[in-house]
Amino acid sequence: MNDTKSNLFEKTYEYLADISNIRKKFSEKKMSEIKNFINVCLRHSDIYDFINSKLKINDKIIEVESKELLRKLLNYAHDQKDIFLYIDVNIREENNINHIELTNYRKLLEIISSYFLFSQDILISKELSNYYSNLVYYSKLKDYFELGIEEIPPYRIYNYEAEKMIYYELKSISNEINRLKDIINNFNINNAIKLKKKNKEILEQYLKKWWETYKNISQKTYPGLCNHFSYYNGVDLKVLVCKNNKKIPNTVHDSDLALCVAKHDTNSGDIKINFNNYIKEITFLDEEIGNDFEDVTIDLGLGFDSYKEDSMDMIKSSIKIELKEELVRLFEINFNEISYKKFTSEILSLMGMDIIKKNNNNLVIKRDFLTGKSLVYSIIRFEKDEDFDMKKVLKYKTSNNNYLIICQTVVTETIKNKFIDIDNIIIKDVNDFFREAKNFIFKNINLDIALINEIIYPFLKENIVKNEMKELKVNKAENLINKLKNCPVGLEGWKQFENICNNILKFVFEESFENFNMKIQSRNYNGKDIRDIILSNTSEITFWNNVRHFYNCNNIIIECKNKSSTIGNDGFRQISDYLGKDAIGQFGIILSRKGLSDGGRDKQRDYLYQRPKKLILVLSEQDIIDLVKIKSFNDYPEKVLENLKFEVETNI
């Protein structure tokens, strides 16, 4: 099946229309087709995550037992105040497996439809959005009609525009079906409209002016750093004007158009602008823009006159923010211990915290302006070359004092999660502080002036030349993380995930081993060509030394699993077979997308009881991202593995 989102979008509504027909005349073939289609949708990690955010299921949805899945769907319907909830409850109680499965499929397809209509990556006109919303409701009513339901129950809803409650009386389902059918049949899906020549010229002049201004402001405001800014030496632009149903409140232009500009840096010394000459009713940005353009901006409420008349003010405002973001990115690559202390102190100040010194201790006062109360935190810093000591930090848990732990490197999500429920300890790592910095700049408030002009820019002016290799490393890390996040989950993205993991392992661990030697070994499993990765354990780093000594690990076996579900009992079978071989030893790693299930965690611990015992670490997508981020800061990525190893070995 073609699994582009544009094709999945159309198929969603086709299969929704089929539900009532299958209810009327059962078709095993059609049921299987819809099930397979939903599975294809689930391979897209963003669709999978959208559905799971509604249903709170952390496993592959379509494999969940039918009544249990319907229970989850009913809970979601209850949260949404679905007026037909009582009908679906009756379906569950009647225990007709075909009716339950059909109801599951319809409700899942409705959620998938919501993803498409409200996704940030898909722009759709208000008229077309209403049309597809009517299709969903029409399909839903037809399905209930086939179940013998004759009336739509009365309900009320608050109308925010009119600022009053609206009451809807009981209606005949057949009448409502006929009304919707007329609306749907009379709707004409407009063809794409050609972008007017004069509007294209306005945008072209605006974008050329943007680039010239970008260079001028770079030269005047931040001399000495110009060549380090992304688009100073040249840029390719891909420009789309799209219909759109998303609106920004209180905008000057009540327009249903959006301007999408994708940028790609070059060294051409020029600007190249590529227009899509047609304005479409629906635009799938991923498909239209492609993978070469990573920086995409979307301006809603596009008014062509504003780009012609007020363009200079708009350009200067956007460029000032853009260059500040660039400075933060460069500082993230180049900072040292002294500049990081100044940087973090300023961020805390911007967050409304006062820093004082008392008895040679740095304290932070966090004020609650609503209650008037204040909390005082002692600052504990872990420097760049100092490992974050979890045991030491946990000792603060029993103290009557509050502690703010500031780290100069990345603290893994595994560790952060251990401190979520500990009230007197706050952990802030390098990612947290730079995220806050970017938030202040994005808000375009003057509070960031001291941060940029007194800390970041002066430091970069003196130090940036020395760290060009590090910039390449950080850029490569960002590229690997983006590829991982955009890789489809499941069978469709299996090979892509393996290739990404190969590149990540080389990037992360090449410097950890003497004579880095990575071998790809192929095998066939269930008709799929599986490639296992074997690393020769030639490292003298403590972690690799320990697994060599305690688990006889001369060679490290790594398996890539691009499953859309968590790793359960069966997920260990193949790698466990390898670990019985003398040449491999009893230590292995599984790189996954969703991490471990509870059952998988129990199985992982069981292997430590065996003789010889086996240690199999399972990394989630977030763990893999942590590996890359930590390496980009020239820190030891092994700390991610050490934390996971500690978790397994201490939870027996």
Care to describe what's here?
The chain is α/β, with parallel strands linked by helices and 652 residues long. The chain folds into 4 domains: 5-185, no CATH class; 193-309, no CATH class; 337-434 and 454-466, 3-Layer(aba) Sandwich (Trna Endonuclease, Chain: A, domain 1), CATH 3.40.1350; 487-649, Restriction Endonuclease. It is 50% helix and 18% strand. The chain is built from 24 helices and 22 strands. The strands form 7 sheets. Strands 13-14-15-16-17 form a 5-stranded mixed beta sheet. A 5-stranded mixed beta sheet has the order 18-19-20-21-22. A hairpin with a 6-residue loop joins strand 14 and strand 15. This is Restriction endonuclease.
Total strands: the figure is 22
Rg (C-alpha, Å): 28 Å
Q: Low-confidence runs (pLDDT<50, min 5 residues)?
A: none
Count of DSSP H/I helices: 24
Organism: Halanaerobium salsuginis
Protein name: Restriction endonuclease
Features:
single chain, 652 residues, alpha/beta, Trna Endonuclease, Chain: A, domain 1, five-stranded mixed beta sheet, 22 strands, 50% helix
Itemize the secondary structure elements and their pairings.
Layout: H1 5-24, H2 28-42, H3 45-55, H4 66-79, H5 85-94, H6 97-118, E1 122-124, H7 126-146, E2 151-152, E3 155-159, E4 164-168, E5 171-172, H8 173-185, E6 193-194, H9 197-221, E7 235-243, E8 257-265, E9 271-275, E10 278-279, E11 282-284, H10 285-289, E12 295-300, H11 304-309, H12 311-334, H13 337-350, E13 353-358, E14 361-367, E15 374-382, H14 390-395, E16 402-407, H15 413-418, E17 425-428, H16 430-442, H17 449-463, H18 468-486, H19 494-509, E18 518-525, E19 528-536, H20 542-550, E20 555-560, H21 573-578, E21 587-591, H22 598-606, E22 615-619, H23 621-632, H24 638-649
Parallel strand pairs: 7-9, 15-16, 16-17, 20-21, 21-22
Antiparallel strand pairs: 1-11, 2-5, 3-4, 6-10, 7-8, 8-12, 13-14, 14-15, 18-19, 19-20
Helix pairs in contact: 1-2, 1-6, 1-7, 2-6, 3-6, 4-5, 4-6, 6-7, 7-8, 9-12, 12-16, 12-17, 13-16, 13-17, 18-19, 18-23
